[in-house]
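FAQ: What does a ligand-bound record look like?

Like this one, built around coenzyme A:
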Amino acid sequence: MTEHIKTELAQGVLTIRMNREDKKNALTQAMYSALALAIDNAASNPEVRVLLLAGAPTAFTSGNDIQDFIKVPPMSEDSPVLLFMRALALFPKPVVAAVTGLAIGVGSTMLLHADLIYAGEGTRFQFPFVNLGICPEYAATYLLPRMMGHARASELTLFGEPFNAKKAQEYGLINEMLADADVEARALERARKLAGQAPNALRVTKKLLKRWGHSTVMDAIRVEAEHFGPMLKEPEAIEAFTAFVQKRKPDFSKFK
Ligand code: COA
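The answer part, i.e. the structure of the complex:
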């Protein structure tokens, strides 16, 4: 386990908190493994009625740790990131997310697998994959167009620009926008209310809501990963990661 993932169970709500604020909650292999384990344990623990995903005031998460992308690119079906993705996508109970600060990369795509999302007005969302020479992951290429339409999904993924909570709400990505300081309390209040609902009725309703796209979502996670993994080692991504480490803008002008 890692001190960068904290869990706390109270009143039927398991809070899983990403806790590496000095690195903007960038997710390492160890953090993905700890997340996957905590989520799988929560699935089988009857005391857990609802999962609450939370981060830090300045960062829900800034996405995959870019140094990790360079050192240990996820290439296999059982890599920690894919274990995490499947654990959350298959989690049978309600998932509430409390989002403040940065929600970049997987910080935004994991929200597509939460059920209720409460975000601070200062949240910075971003699908920066193309900017990094890679492609979207976590079924975003299926879920985003389905959720908001092709034009908006193209805008968010092809430009890869940051966008704010107002736009996230307009595009249907979040349920409510709140003052940053109020996000956790509101998310917890909603999670506790869900924890008091009939648990089997909640599970069946969630399952049915996701049932119709389920096999495509699982397929998309796998097919995107088949592109994403090899792209991490291609020159476009190497240029982008090197630029990040050197704190400069990437130069893609030489690529065809
Ligand atoms: N991977 C690795 N390290 C990261 C990181 C990431 N995804 N996001 C932030 N960090 C690190 C920074 O390198 C910095 O480390 P340092 O203090 O050792 O230099 C620290 O976290 C603080 O971040 P910093 O860049 O100084 O904060 P900022 O407020 O100036 O900028 C971001 C924040 C998010 C704009 C910037 O960190 C960034 O672009 N991160 C990468 C985000 C990204 O592309 N993620 C997608 C992965 S798919």
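Follow-up question: can I read anything off the structure? Yes, for example: The CA atoms of residues 18 and 55 lie 5 Å apart.
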